[in-house]
Amino acid sequence: MPTLSHAVKTPRDLYQMAKHLGMWDPAAMSLAEDKANFATLSSEKQEQLTKICALFYEGEVSVADTLAWFMLAMPDPERRMFLSAHVFEEVKHAEYFERYFKEVLGEMDTAAYLIPESRNVLMDGLKERGEAMGRAMMNGNQQELDFALTMFAAHYMGIIEGVMALTAYDYVGEMLTSVKLFPGLQEAIRLIRADEGRHIIHGMDYLRRQIADHPEYKTPVKELFLDNIKSMTLWTQWVFNPNPFGLDSERMMFLGYNLHRQRMRDIGLI
C-alpha cells in the first residue's frame, strides 16, 4: 500500500521507474485460458464478473481521458515528465479491458452497468474537475488553476485511484486467486496495481505539498474525502446483488475504509 514513506521518490525517480516497470503490453497477454474459464461459469457468475470488469473498464477510460488536462496544466516540468508516463499507463489499462471484453466477456455497453453513484465519482465528477482546470488555463488565472489542480488530484489520485481502484483491484485479485481462475486477469491486475502504486505515490506527494503551501486548501480537500466516504457503500454494494461468487462485502468495505483513512493520513488531513 503506497504511503508517505515512499514519497522520497521524486517525480523524475518515478518516471525512470515507469520506463523500466511499466512497459508490459496488453496486446501480448494470453487470454485463452480466461475465455475457457468464463465459458464454464453459470450465467449469474458471468454477470457478476462482467459487472466488476465494466467498472474497471469505464474507470480506466474516464481517468485516461481526463488526466491529459492535469498534465497540460501542471507547471512543474518534472511532474509533467512523470505524468506523460502516467497518461500512457492509464490508456494501456483501458486497452487491456477493451480487449478483455472483446475476447473473453463479449462486447457490450459497459457504461450501462454503472449505477449513478459510481458514474458520478468516476465519470461526471471527474470530467467537471478537468473542465475546471481547462477554464483556469484559458483564463490565465494561476490562483484558480492551483486550486483546480489540487482538487483534481484529490478526486483522481486520492479517491479514484487511491481508494476505489485499489480496493477493487486488491479485493478482486484476492478472489481470483482463491478460486484459481482467470490467470490472465490476475496477471493484469498485478501489473495495473503496480502502475497505480507509482501514480498514487506521486499524487499523494503533490497533494501533501499543495496543502502545505496553501493551508486554505485543506478544508475543501477534506470535505471531498468525507463526502466520498458517505457514498462508499452505494458505489460498492451493487456488485454484490446478486452475489453468486459469495463475495464478502464486509471485506471489501474494510479494505476501502482502511485505504480511505490511509490516503487522508498521507496528505496530512488527519
Uncertain segments: 1-7
Mean pLDDT: 93
> Globular, elongated, flat, extended or rod-shaped: what is the shape?
globular
Structural domain tally: 1
CATH T-level fold name: Ribonucleotide Reductase, subunit A
Provide the CATH top-level class: Mainly Alpha
Summarize the structure in words.
This protein has 270 residues and is mainly alpha-helical. Helices cover 78% and strands 0% of the residues. It has a single domain (30-266), classed as Ribonucleotide Reductase, subunit A, CATH 1.10.620. The longest helix is centred in the middle third of the chain and has 38 residues, at 142-179. It is globular and about 55 Å long. The two termini are 18 Å apart.
Compose a concise summary of this entry.
The protein is mainly α and 270 residues long.
Q: How are the elements arranged and paired?
A:
Elements: H1 11-21, H2 32-40, H3 43-73, H4 77-105, H5 116-139, H6 142-179, H7 183-213, H8 218-230, H9 232-237, H10 249-266
Helix pairs in contact: 1-4, 1-7, 3-4, 3-5, 3-6, 4-7, 5-6, 6-7, 6-8, 6-10
